UniProtKB/TrEMBL annotation:
InterPro entries: Beta-grasp_dom_sf (IPR012675), Mopterin_synth/thiamin_S_b (IPR016155), Thi_S (IPR010035), ThiS/MoaD-like (IPR003749). It comes from Undibacterium aquatile. Pfam families: ThiS (PF02597). SUPFAM superfamilies: MoaD/ThiS (SSF54285). This is Sulfur carrier protein ThiS.
Length: 66
């Protein structure tokens, strides 16, 4: 199944959870935010939120600086 990940096509397993996607991207221990179809998904909901075909997923990493 295909989603849009940060604006680019990305293949995932059918009914994959946000938590699975983040783990597959090796970002589980990173300071990130995830939005699906422009709606922020709280980290506490990642294990419950199943992705659907054509979802638009944005993953944003926090970067320190000043």
């Amino acid at each position: 199944m295909e989603i849009q990940l940060n604006g680019a096509p990305h293949q995932i397993r059918s009914a994959q959870l946000v938590a699975d996607l983040i783990a597959d991207l090796s970002l589980m221990d990173k300071a990130i935010a995830v939005a699906v179809n422009r709606q922020i998904i709280p980290r506490s909901c990642w294990a419950d939120h199943a992705l659907q075909a054509n979802d638009k997923v944005d993953v944003v990493r926090a970067i320190g600086g000043g």
